[in-house]
């Protein structure tokens, strides 16, 4: 048996035993909460629980991790970093690369592993790719994403890449406060300038509501974030380039209605009646004023809350777990078949047939 | 706990030409409420005019009411104190005859009291309107402004000392607590409302504003008590006198008894 065949045989055994490594390359947010990072950790947790050899991979060994904002249950998951030379891979190993990490593709193009893009924010796909280059140029043939809308978008720029939608979940601590909601407005915008602009405009246009407080949802631990969202009576969401829109889903989990500007790429879950949406960002303040008047009079339509509850059903931890575990189970099957075929091709006639 | 445990006190003072128009609107607001009170008490002066009015008046169906004829002092504070004395439920609420409850006020109380059992006084968010019903502003809302009071949503003594824009009309209060702290003081002419809240907070009453519109208050209705203080030549208050009553409230709230007060120029 030659070296190549031996390597493939060893890889095949690893795949069959679920020993192949699955690295989720993860952005170091330096202690700041980020939904995309949280999703990586969730996926790894499900895979580890299901017996896969999955781990979180940072670029630098100084990466701060998520202990401060995501919770201790995630800090115990397997971690590694590229800087320390921990990324040693073979044909049975898989590296999940965030869409933003186009530059890493160049560095690992020669590595004999499966490279799969994990696209949670379609708007960053081209951010670090050279003009005219796309994922297949770096040996990437598969992509995992979080919405059908993003899948369709990916098809337009990388038609040969096989893209699969895997659901995400919202942690169970995103829940309504036990006590009645307070006149607090949770606000989350991609650009902080938008937050300040909305707050200042709101008070100018609605001086009668100057006693109502906005809560800027930046820089909080996930649990504090969930608690603040749970006690707020409404949330504001402005993120034109959002891929999935974790914040409005979290808000709905907390039974907190969302007033938001429609993202360019409308997420699958967003319907006409599960939130209060506007094309025109400048209308948000007016819509918020009207909403608060209704809330103070307890006349927000019950149907809105019902639609919110329906929407959140698709983001259960069970569905996410099934989605991610099925994806890698199927992938392992496919890789196993591919590898057996390769071994067959390399073997002398009759040996493996 | 539910709204049946509330007695609504409607203190009445005099029959003006348009009394019945205001009064019927006020009672209709109880009739149209999502939740009904246990009892309504109309406390009015004992005179022929009121006896005649009530002999002809028909209470909307489904509302249980009684009339108390008072042959003593019939100012606002005395009428309320008498009403509380006759209250048989755990809570009472004050509804002025020219004001209205919102249809959600009593049902909101039902909801909040489940979560805040230790609260002695629930303020409604009061919408102040002019006589035509035009919006002027909110009252009792400030406790929900971040950093305003010690605890978001609650009124404390330090905060009350600095800010006076709270009112007792519309509030739902525990009868026992009202009696424990001494009720309203008729002697504190202009600022009885303020003095009462200072005294309530000083005596550890837990006061919370339910952040829902619960009460529509007609501000400065012609010939109302406070309109007269501001506009009626014979009763008009000077700035000095107004200041006197505010300062008086800050001195008197330490005492649970109503002490005689005389203002001299």
Notes on the protein architecture:
The complex is a heterodimer of chains A (353) and B (265). Chain A is of the alpha/beta class and 353 residues long. In chain A, 39% of the residues lie in helices and 17% in strands. Chain A is built from eleven helices and twelve strands. Chain A has a seven-stranded parallel sheet, sandwiched between helices. In chain A, strands 9-8-10-11-12 form a five-stranded parallel sheet, with helices on both faces. In chain A, strand 4 (94-98), helix 4 (102-108) and strand 5 form a beta-alpha-beta unit. In chain A, helix 8 (246-253) packs across helix 10 (302-312). The longest helix of chain A has 30 residues, at 317-346. Chain B is α/β, with parallel strands linked by helices and 265 residues long. Chain B has a single domain (2-252), classed as Alpha-Beta Complex (Spore Coat Polysaccharide Biosynthesis Protein SpsA, Chain A). Helix content of chain B is 34%, strand content 21%. Chain B has helices at residues 19-31, 48-56, 76-86, 105-115, 157-162, 175-181, 192-202, 225-231, 239-252; strands at 6-11, 39-45, 65-70, 91-94, 100-101, 121-129, 135-139, 154-155, 172-174, 207-218. In chain B, strands 1, 2, 3, 4, 5, 6, 7, 8, 9 and 10 form a ten-stranded mixed sheet that branches. In chain B, helix 1 links the parallel strand 1 (6-11) and strand 2 (39-45). In chain B, helix 7 (192-202) runs parallel beside helix 9. The longest helix of chain B is centred in the C-terminal third of the chain and has 14 residues, at 239-252. Chains A and B meet through loops of A and helix 4, strand 7 and strand 10 of B.
């Amino acid at each position: 048996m030659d070296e190549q065949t031996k390597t493939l045989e060893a890889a095949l055994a690893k795949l069959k035993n679920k020993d192949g490594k699955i690295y989720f390359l993860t952005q170091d947010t330096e202690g700041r909460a980020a939904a995309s990072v949280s999703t990586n950790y969730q996926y790894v947790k499900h895979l580890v629980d299901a017996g896969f050899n999955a781990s979180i991979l940072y670029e630098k060994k100084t990466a701060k991790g998520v202990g401060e904002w995501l919770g201790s249950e995630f800090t115990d998951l397997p971690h590694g970093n590229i800087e320390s030379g921990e990324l040693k891979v073979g044909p049975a190993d898989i590296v999940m690369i965030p869409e933003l990490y186009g530059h890493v593709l160049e560095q690992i193009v020669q590595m004999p592993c499966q490279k799969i893009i994990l696209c949670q924010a379609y708007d960053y796909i081209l951010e670090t790719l050279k003009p005219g280059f796309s994922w297949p140029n770096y040996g990437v043939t598969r992509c995992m994403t979080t919405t059908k809308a993003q899948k369709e978008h990916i098809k337009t720029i990388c038609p040969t890449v096989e893209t699969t939608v895997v659901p995400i979940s919202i942690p169970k601590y995103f829940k309504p406060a036990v006590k009645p909601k307070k006149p607090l407005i949770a606000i989350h915008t991609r650009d902080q300038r938008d937050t300040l602009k909305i707050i200042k405009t709101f008070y100018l246009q609605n001086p009668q509501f100057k006693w109502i407080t906005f809560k800027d949802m930046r820089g909080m631990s996930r649990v504090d974030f969930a608690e603040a969202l749970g006690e707020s009576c409404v949330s504001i969401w402005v993120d034109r380039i959002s891929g999935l829109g974790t914040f409005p889903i979290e808000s709905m989990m907390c039974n907190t209605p969302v007033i938001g500007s429609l993202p360019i790429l409308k997420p699958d879950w967003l319907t006409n009646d599960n939130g209060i949406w506007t094309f025109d960002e400048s209308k948000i303040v007016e819509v918020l004023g009207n909403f608060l008047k209704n809330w103070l009079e307890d006349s927000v339509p019950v149907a809105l809350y019902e639609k919110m509850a329906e929407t959140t059903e698709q983001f259960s931890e069970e569905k996410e777990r099934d989605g991610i575990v099925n994806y890698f189970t199927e992938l392992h099957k496919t890789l196993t078949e591919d590898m057996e075929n390769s071994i067959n091709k390399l073997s002398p006639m009759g040996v493996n047939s | 706990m539910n709204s049946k445990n509330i007695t609504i006190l409607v203190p009445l003072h005099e029959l003006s030409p348009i009394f019945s128009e205001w009064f019927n609107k006020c009672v209709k607001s109880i009739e149209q409420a999502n939740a009904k009170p246990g009892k309504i008490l109309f406390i009015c002066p004992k005179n022929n005019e009121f006896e005649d009015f009530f002999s002809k008046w028909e209470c909307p169906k489904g509302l249980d009411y009684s009339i108390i004829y008072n042959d003593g002092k019939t100012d606002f504070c005395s009428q309320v104190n008498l009403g509380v004395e006759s209250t048989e439920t755990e809570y009472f609420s004050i509804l002025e005859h020219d004001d209205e409850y919102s249809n959600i006020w009593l049902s909101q109380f039902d909801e909040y009291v489940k979560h805040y059992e230790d609260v002695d006084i629930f303020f409604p968010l009061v919408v102040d309107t002019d006589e035509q019903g035009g919006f002027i502003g909110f009252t009792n809302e400030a406790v929900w402004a971040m950093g305003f009071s010690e605890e978001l949503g609650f009124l404390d003594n330090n905060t009350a000392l600095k800010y006076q824009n709270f009112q007792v009309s519309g509030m739902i209060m525990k009868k026992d607590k009202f009696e424990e702290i001494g009720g309203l003081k008729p002697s504190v002419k202009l600022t009885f409302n303020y003095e009462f809240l200072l005294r309530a907070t000083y005596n550890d009453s837990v006061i919370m504003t339910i952040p829902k519109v619960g009460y529509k208050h007609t501000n400065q209705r012609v010939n109302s008590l406070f309109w007269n203080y501001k506009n009626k030549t014979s009763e008009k208050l000077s700035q000095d006198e107004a200041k006197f009553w505010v300062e008086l409230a800050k001195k008197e709230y330490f005492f649970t008894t109503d002490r005689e007060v005389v203002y001299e120029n």
